[in-house]
Amino acid sequence: GGATRTAKAGKSSSDTPMKDSGAKEKSALAVVLAKCFKSLARPTVKLQHPQAIKMTEALGLGQRHLRIMRDQFDDIDVDGSGNIDAVELFEAMGEVRSKITEELFAMMDMDGNARLDFDEYVAVALSYCMYTKDDILKFCFDLFDLDSGGTIDEKEFTEMCVAVSAGDPLFSGNFRMALENFDTNDDGLIDFDEFRNLNDRYPMILHPAFRMQDKLQKYTLGEEEWVKVMENINYWQKNKRVHGQGGRGASLITVGAVPGEVSAEVLRPPARGPRVHRLPIEDGAG
């Protein structure tokens, strides 16, 4: 009798680790399945603003892309308010407040309430992510062309140099001499072509604007997804040139949604409401 009890006890004891192991495996499987079901059950991300809808259609973005952007937006929205302000946005991106970041935020803030909702974020962030080098240079040129005259005069040039150099002299000597260096037609003003030459000679001056594009790509879809989006756009545009409207043969491979025309009209920043929140730039901010 004693031996039988001992054998039973031994059997029961050896079964325990196996039962524990099986329970853990079931638990891990349950977690994985729960995540899968949660992903499948996620609500559709709906856009309301025409510019946001236009941009996603132009780039051939679908629900998967919008969910990625929604997750990124929610990560930036640290207070869970459903929208983000300039502090949240640029702290998340590791950017110091500057005239360039201020203007970029103002361009994104289409209703001028000093906060971005998801539609505003999608509409302008995607546009800026698609900007060419000249588009970014034009954004910067317009930023410092304070009177919108199509040229930058000595006063505007001086303000630009101070703004992008954190208060330290950007050029040795006085600003007028520096202006004369870039004013190739000797009219006392810098036009866009001369501005482009300035950037070619001193690329670090406007580097923050280009760096912001890299960071917005990271905080919208991520670098890998942007590569796929661009490959998709290039494929469909090439296919359209070869086969004409409708892209015959496009069904041979699966490259994602069919993108629309990524034109200058689509990329043009949307009109925004009255600017009521000129963000103060602290002394020493670049």
What does this structure look like?
- With 286 residues, this protein is an all-alpha fold.
- Helix content is 59%, strand content 0%.
- It contains 13 helices and no strands.
- α2 packs across α6.
Distance between the termini: 88 Å
Poorly predicted regions: 246-260, 262-286
Main sheet makeup: none
Question: What's the Cα radius of gyration?
Answer: 27 Å
- Topology as a string of helices (H) and strands (E): HHHHHHHHHHHHH
Which structural class matches the secondary elements? Answer: mainly alpha
**What is the tally of helical segments?**
13
Mean pLDDT: 75
Count all strands and give the number: 0
User: What fraction strand?
Assistant: under 5%
**Helicity, as a percent range:** 55-70%
Shape type: elongated
List the helices and strands and how they pair.
Blueprint: H1 2-40, H2 50-59, H3 63-76, H4 86-92, H5 99-108, H6 118-129, H7 133-144, H8 154-164, H9 175-182, H10 192-201, H11 207-218, H12 223-243, H13 264-267
Helix pairs in contact: 2-6, 6-11, 7-10
Quick structural overview:
This protein is mostly helical and 286 residues long. It has helices at 2-40, 50-59, 63-76, 86-92, 99-108, 118-129, 133-144, 154-164, 175-182, 192-201, 207-218, 223-243, 264-267. Helix content is 59%, strand content 0%.
